[in-house]
Amino acid sequence: MERLQKVMAEAGVASRRASEKLIATGHVQVNGQTVTTLGTKVAAKDKIEVDGVPLHREKQVYYLLNKPRGVISSAHDEKGRRTVVDILREDEIEERIYPVGRLDYDTTGLLLLTNDGALANKMMHPKFAVDKTYVAKVKGLISNDDLKQLRTGVKVDGRRTKPAKTRLKDTDREKKTSIVQLTIHEGHYHQVKRMLAAVGHPVIKLHRESYGFLNLQGVQPGDYRELRPEEVKRLNRL
Q1: Which superkingdom heads the taxonomic lineage of this protein's source (predicted)?
Q2: DSSP-based three-state secondary structure for 205
């Protein structure tokens, strides 16, 4: 269920605020009944009309992308840089999709894109605690004490992060670098980079390898696939 004004805005009728005015002034009908109450929620099966004209609602679509480096996690970019949505549009996908959360410009890995606002909001909300697993190449040789700090939480901007799951994957004593796997369910700005910097190991490269139960098996960098119906149902149950 989604708020009526949000559905109208996503369908391109008007902005959310202008849609609220249309509702309040009696221009909108749901299942043949005029609705004037702001905040009314509608389901996908509901028939919505504006001044008698049926509302066209896009089919909800869900894609998993293996984001390459040097691409913006946004639907558009003011500087004209390539975005994750541009990658899918090259194959003439017409739905107005947008990424679920963000990966930095130089971060690679798993990113979901959809036009299902309700699911996107749930997945990004901290209370649902969806695990995200990253692999980071960092400067320095990570110690057990460093890993323990990450597992108990570190201070970032005066706030202690939630405990993370960690695993040391490899070290290069000659180059003095380490590769560590980190699983978190928070999604604050530059979270993984700042957590690792807080224990003295700045990130050189960062890759997200999984999101919840989803992974990148069979999806090469820059490629994507549509989620299967059972995967979408499973995401909604998370």
Answers
A1: Bacteria
A2: strand
Q: What is the pTM of this model?
A: 0.81
DSSP states of 81-143 as a string?
A: --BHHHHHHTTT--S--EESS---TT-EEEEEEES-HHHHHHHHSGGG---EEEEEEEES---
Catalytic positions: 104
CA-to-CA distance for 54 and 46, rounded, in angstroms? Answer: 11
Under DSSP, is residue 9 helix (H, G, I), strand (E, B) or coil?
helix
Which is nearest to 215 in space by CA: 125, 128, 109?
109
* End-to-end alpha carbon distance in the chain: 17
Domains of the chain listed by start with CATH number: 2-54 (3.10.290.10), 62-126+214-237 (3.30.70.580), 131-211 (3.30.70.1560)
Q: What does the pLDDT look like over 140-155, one tens digit per residue? A: 999 999 999 999 999 9
